[in-house]
Specification:
3-stranded mixed beta sheet, single chain, alpha/beta
Length: about 240
């Protein structure tokens, strides 16, 4: 197990590790636990970060309970999921969503994982799990309430492109109940000639953190939102 150094981030659905890379670029002394169920991507993650002592790759899916789950590997790794694609998704995608293989992978719940590994604080949670976001949040609810999570960044579907998928409205309602509010939308993804918005990447902040930033808009303007967020992290943990 890694000893947390500086900030601690959990990257759920790490894929190629771009979010992990951003986390350690922003917080060089951070510890990042990167969860990824696809075997090929897990090996790629380990290779990418083998020289960085603050990154720990965990070969597992994340959900609302520990166990195992069938994971469907798609032709394009970005579309691999534990959920099968819906007819709507097939309408917007070609062969990139075709199933290449199905593998049985372990699944963990963040709350139990954190207890078992003596993780006493988590600063940032990133979630990108192709429709299982609310399951991840159910399994991390106690962690989010009690371990100091300040920010949740999440890919949020607007339409159900997978069978059994959640949507942005359900994710937002669950995070509201956990004490978070939407702060920023970073990117929207569109599909089809009608330019249907199918999902977005968004940032939710804990209400006290967001309130503190809102009370000092001049600082956010003067030093930039990124530095304001760093300052907020330090203030609320000290």
């Amino acid at each position: 197990n890694l000893v947390p150094r500086g900030r601690l981030s959990v990257d759920i659905g790490a894929n190629k590790g771009d979010a992990t890379r951003r986390a350690i670029d922003e917080f060089p002394r951070a510890t990042v636990y990167a969860f990824e169920p696809a075997p090929k991507m897990t090996e790629a993650l380990r290779e990418r970060f083998k020289g960085h002592p603050g990154v720990c790759t965990i070969a597992a899916a994340v959900g609302d309970r520990p166990g195992a789950i069938d994971f469907h590997v798609a032709a394009d790794d970005l579309y691999s999921s534990a959920l099968p694609p819906s007819e709507l998704r097939r309408h917007y995608h070609d062969g990139e969503i075709d199933r290449v293989s199905t593998v049985r992978v372990p699944m963990v719940a963040v709350d139990q994982w954190a207890d078992e590994n003596a993780i006493d604080r988590v600063d940032i949670v990133k979630i990108d799990v192709q429709g299982l976001e609310t399951a991840v949040l159910r399994g991390a609810a106690e962690d989010i309430r009690t371990r100091g999570v300040l920010a949740v960044t999440c890919e949020a579907p607007l339409i159900r492109e997978y069978e059994g998928s959640c949507t942005y409205a359900e994710i937002d309602a669950m995070l509201n109940a956990l004490g978070f509010e939407i702060h920023q939308v970073h990117e929207c993804w569109t599909r089809g000639p009608e330019k249907q918005v199918v999902c977005l990447d968004a940032l939710w902040l804990r209400r006290d953190a967001l309130s503190w930033i809102r009370r000092q808009p001049e600082r956010a303007f003067e030093i930039g939102w990124r530095d304001a967020f760093h300052t907020t992290l330090a203030r609320l943990h000290n």
